[in-house]
Amino acid sequence: MTVREPLGIAVIGTGRMGADHVRRIDSVISGARVAAVADIDAERAKAVAAGIDGCTAHTDPAAAMAAADVDAVLIASPGPAHEAALLAAFERDLPVLCEKPLTPDAASALRVLEAEQALGHRRVQVGFMRRYDTEYVRLKALLSTGQLGRPLMLHNRHRNVASPPFFTSSMLISDSVAHEVDATRWLLGHEISAVTVLRPTPSGGAPEGLSDPQFVVLETDGGAISDVEIFVNCGFGYQVQAEAVCERGTARIGDGHALITHMAGRWGGTITQDWTERFAQAYDDELQAWVDSTRRGEVTGPSTWDGYAAAAVCEAGIRALEEGGRVEVDLVEKPQLYR
Ligand SMILES: NC(=O)c1ccc[n+]([C@@H]2O[C@H](COP(=O)([O-])OP(=O)(O)OC[C@H]3O[C@@H](n4cnc5c(N)ncnc54)[C@H](O)[C@@H]3O)[C@@H](O)[C@H]2O)c1
Predict the structure, then answer these.
(1) Does the model's pTM come out above 0.85?
(2) Site to substitute for ligand 1 among 21, 23, 40, most atoms within 8 A of C-beta
C-alpha cells in the first residue's frame, strides 16, 4: 500500500462540493495534494486546476484517475455519476472518498457493494460528514456511556434557507433526509426497518408543486423511533438539530449557541446560512481522517454498507412519500467484509 507523501488525490466533479474539497486539500488539511481534477465541464475543471501546482485537468474521470501521482480518488460529481466513478476507481484498486449518496438507489448501491467485495477489501469511505461533527461526536459518545439509559427516540430538524430550482419532493428524502438516515443508524447502532412520510399543506414559501416541509418517521430494528422534520425553504437559515430522548434523560445538539449577544434591549445570536458554514469543521476533519487512514493503508469511516443501507432507506422513504403509508426497508444480509 502506498504511503506517498503527500498523497496525490484525483477530485472528480469540481462543482460546489468538489471545488470546496480542492480548496480544503490544497490549503487546510495536511498530507495530501490535488494531483488531478475531472469535470464534464472542461472550463470548470481547468479553472479549478489552474490554481494548483502540478494539477492536471480532465473531462473523463478515468483519465484523471490514471494521471501521474494519483494515489486516491475523491468523488464529488452528482449522485447518478457515482457508480461509474466508483467502478473506475475499483479497476485501479484506488482508495475512494465518495460524497453522499453512495449512489441514488438501492440496486446501484448493491452493485457497488458487490464490486467492492470482489476486490476482497474495503476501499470506500462515504461522505456522511456528520459523523465527524464535534456536536454529533459528543452526542454519540454520551449515548455510548449508557448514562442516559437506552435511547427511545430521536427528534431531528433539518432546515435549509431555500431549495435549488431542480429540487423535487423526493429529493427532500434522497438528498436531505439521507443525512438523518445515516446519523440515526450511526448514533443508535440500529438498522432502519420502516419509513412513513407525513405531509402538511406545503409552505407558501416553497416553489409550486414542492411538498415542503415533510415529516419522516424512521423505525429501527432496535425498537427506537427517529423523526425528521425536513423543511428546505424555511427562509431564515440552515439548521440541523437532534435530540435524543433516553430512559433517564435527554441530550440535544445543534442549537447553535456559540455566541450570544445582548444589545439594545434584545438578546440573540446568528443562524448559519448553509452547510459549508455549519459543517466546516466536520468536512475538514472528515477529509483529514480519510487522508490519514489512507496513508496508513486503512479504510475507516462510513462504509459502502452504510451507503447501501442509506440508499435502501431513502428508496423506501420515497415510496412512502409517493404511495402513502408505512413502507418496510428490505436490506440484503450484511456481508462479512462490513461486520
Ligand atoms: N456532504 C454534504 O453535506 C454535501 C453537501 C452538498 C452536496 N453533497 C454531494 O456532493 C456531490 C456534488 O454536489 P454539488 O452540490 O457539488 O453539485 P454541483 O452541481 O455543484 O457540482 C457537480 C459537478 O460535477 C460535474 N459533473 C457532472 N457529471 C459528472 C461526471 N459524470 N463526471 C465528472 N463530473 C461531473 C458537474 O459539471 C459539476 O461541476 C453530490 O453527490 C451531493 O449530494 C454533499
Answers:
(1) yes
(2) 40
